[in-house]
Amino acid sequence: MKRIGILLIIIGVVCLGVFGYQIIGQEQSQQQSLIQAEERIKQGMDKQGETELDNASSQDTAQAVESFDTEQDEAFATLEIPKLEKTLPIVEGTDPDSLEKGVGHLSNSVFPGQEEQILLSGHRDTVFRDFGELEIGDTFVVQMPYGEYTYEIRETEIVPEDDTSVIREMGEEVLVVTTCYPFHFVGSAPDRFVAYAYPVSEN
Questions:
Q1: Which of 17, 64, 183, 202 has its CA 20 to 30 A from that of 149?
Q2: Is the domain covering 2-199 a CATH 2.40.260.10 domain?
């Protein structure tokens, strides 16, 4: 019996070590993605500044928004969550590799300023830790290489894991942010928490 107890302790210590190693690895990967995203934003802003010096028209700016593109797994923008005091990297793609690096952008959805559904997804136990604290009226700020976009949460819903109706044309610009639910569920969560945030008009 004593040997069994010692064995269980050893297994527990090993499991904690593996879990800790994974957490540290994820945090390092996300930090690298944040550096990459901020560099991409800086390059875009520098280019935009040069364009403004050349007296570019608003039509040129709109063209830059419409023509924006990025590559799979590339960190290209940041998502700020003021309520949680977080700034997270946005990475192209929602596959497991992309979600290890930051908040994933669904490649079939558009980018801010393109007037349709922008879908972002992230893990509840990494980038979206404490996501349950968000409420109607809280905001997201997306910093793109071509500008900053603020969105206010107006609706939330909980849907089954396999419900794909969330991904759809909405006829207007909506930032849709999803994560697993329940937030503190142990194992693979059965549902998804979905927040719908709409552009905040500039005064």
A1: 183
A2: yes
